[in-house]
Specification:
single chain, mainly alpha, 5 helices
Length: 197
């Protein structure tokens, strides 16, 4: 199961207040221009990263939905072929080892299901005499396996992108917090008698 990371809420109110304070006092304290520029840049970066994170989350959810559809399709084909094999061979010990799932809980994860679908497709090619449904079954299994493999890869890629965007957003938020704290200390030092915010 994929762990869901939550996007941090982007609360720019303290940053906006800091920018407003810096703008109010920049004429009296020109050295604040550098801090003002830093706050503006980090604030803009944080907004852009929040949008990128939202987009990455949307892409990941779309990929998960597609993967789920592929899993369902693969399960259906897999079970249909298993039922046909059971009807054809029953409990014949010569075929049961070849045709039975590799693990009792086969298909609990997308990758395990993909492995089982591929294994069954290969097993169908080894049967002799070949049942009438073998060629069609192999084609169906190969198709759903290819679709599932592509969906797994796409989901993995989207999840990695989502995590990267989230990490970038957190790093920028932390940097903005550190810059704000340093600016507060600077303002406090130079404006002891003036309310800062």
């Amino acid at each position: 199961m994929t762990q869901t990371l939550r996007l941090p809420a982007v609360n720019l109110d303290p940053t906006r207040q800091m920018i407003a304070t810096l703008e109010r006092h920049r004429d009296a304290y020109p050295f604040l221009d550098e801090d003002l520029a830093r706050h503006r840049a980090l604030s803009a970066a944080l907004v852009a990263q929040a949008l990128q994170s939202e987009y990455a989350l949307s892409q990941w959810r779309t990929a998960l939905a597609r993967r789920w559809d592929c899993e369902v399709a693969a399960q259906r084909v897999y079970h249909k072929i298993q039922q046909q094999l059971d009807a054809t061979y029953g409990a014949d010990p010569a075929y049961s080892q070849l045709l039975a799932p590799a693990q009792p809980a086969a298909g609990n994860t997308p990758r395990a299901l993909l492995h089982e679908v591929r294994r069954l497709e290969a097993a169908l090619g080894l049967l002799a005499p070949r049942p009438l449904f073998a060629d069609t079954g192999r084609t169906q299994l190969r198709t759903v396996a290819e679709n599932l493999a592509a969906a797994i890869a796409q989901t993995d890629q989207c999840e990695a992108e989502r995590r990267n965007r989230l990490v970038e957003q957190r790093l920028t938020a932390n940097m903005l917090e550190r810059v704000s704290e340093r600016t507060r200390r600077t303002l406090t030092h130079y404006m002891l008698d003036t309310p800062l915010l």
